[in-house]
Amino acid sequence: MKLSAFQFNLPDELLAEYPADNRDEARLMVLNRKEQTIEHKMFKDLIDYFEEDDVLVLNNTKVFPARLFGNKEKTGARIEVFLLRELNPETRLWDVLVDPARKIRIGNKLYFGDDETLVAEVIDNTTSRGRTLRFLFDGSYEEFRNKLTELGETPLPKYIKREVEPEDAERYQTIFAKNEGAVAAPTAGLHFSKHLLKRLEIKGIDFAEVTLHVGLGTFSSVEVEDLSKHKMDSEEMIIDEAAAKIINNGIERKKRVCAVGTTAMRALESSVSSGYRLNAYSGWTNKFIFPPYDFSIANAMITNFHTPKSTLLMMVSAFAGHDFIKKAYDEAIKEKYRFYTYGDAMLII
Which H or E run contains 202? Predict the structure, then answer.
């Protein structure tokens, strides 16, 4: 498959700026791969497609407020700092992106907050926009992390042009988020409400939680026509023994094992045994899934509607079939489904 196979015209007005009023009342398009049918439902109707002992695989990563705004020493220029990952807790070294990057050089200092109690020094250049920062802060590590949380804002994707609002802190987080470390939400999980999870539990559906800390690499654009030459950024992931056992039980009982989101799917496909079972794993993955690809663990998936030429669209095409996804996306545009982070959802069975 070539990159150009994933291009389509997406009207700007279909990019969702806000989430649905209620989490589980986003729209849900249901694709049946065997029957090649498309149904239009609400997300809370999801329960009708699952039976007792089916398994939903949830990504329990938690988004931290990764976007900070600081001022450059001397000039006072406003600089956006996007925290990517912590390199060393003791020395408070972080990998970050800065914008505008041309103004930020090694040795520069940035001041954050009105009281300027948090300062960062630029230690190294990593990429064109990437820098290594050392944070200088008078206090314990816990106080330092609290300061980052206090000064940071919800890292909504750049396509959302409006200002971050207080509600985003809650809505750009799944209700099962536990392990902090993501700079972007696993968006398919945003549609689950407490009420829907309870109803699924009462029906006897099993939940398995995995962790994949979503990095910005998930959204990096693909620059090569030959997809085999694209390299994904590594993301940290954890699958514990308990989750692996629940999922493997589902496989052995020939139940529906549904990955909630592309991140959960990528975690599952990154730790497969030779006997097509899931292994517990703690480490990093840079797995890139595009057609043709044989999936080993999940036989269903929930996902949002993705943007043209994105790696997320490529994975979904590999799972549902390229022609079927093309047809579904044509229908989604015609029916005015909402796309991307705060958009509507798709269930593929």
Answer: helix 194-202
User: 98-120 burial, b if ≥16 CB within 10 A, otherwise e?
Assistant: beebeebeeebebbbeeeeebbb
Residue 43 φ/ψ region, left for φ over 0, alpha for ψ in the -120 to 50 degree band, beta for the rest: alpha
Nearest Cα residue to 285 out of 301, 268, 273, 302: 268
Task: Please state the pTM of the whole predicted model.
Answer: 0.91
Structure token digits, residue 311: 């790696």
Q: What is the pLDDT along the chain (349 residues), one digit of tens a residue?
A: 899 999 999 999 999 999 999 999 999 999 999 999 999 999 999 999 999 999 999 999 999 988 999 999 888 889 999 998 889 888 999 999 898 888 888 999 999 988 778 999 999 888 777 899 999 988 899 999 999 999 999 999 888 989 999 899 999 999 999 999 898 999 999 999 999 999 999 999 999 999 999 987 777 778 899 999 998 888 999 999 999 999 999 999 999 999 999 999 999 999 999 999 999 999 999 999 999 999 999 999 999 999 999 999 999 999 999 999 999 999 999 999 999 999 999 999 9
User: What is the three-class DSSP state of 51?
Assistant: coil
Angle CA 286–329–156, to nearest 5: 55
d(CA 213, CA 264): 10
Beta strands in 129-217 (DSSP E): 130-137, 179-182, 206-212
Tokens of 276: 């097509």
Identify any residues that bridge with 77 across adjacent strands, giving them in sequence order: none
Q: Are 5 and 326 in contact (CB under 8 A)?
A: no
CA distance 95 to 133: 7
Instruction: Write the DSSP assignment of 241-287 as a string of letters.
Output: HHHHHHHHHHHHTT--EEEESHHHHHHHHTSB-TTS-BPPEEEEE--
Q: How far apart are CA 221 and CA 299, in angstroms?
A: 27
Spatial contact of 214 and 181, defined as CB atoms under 8 Å apart: no
Residue 324 phi/psi, 5-degree rounding, is -65, -40
How far is it, in rounded angstroms, from Cα 22 to Cα 131? 39
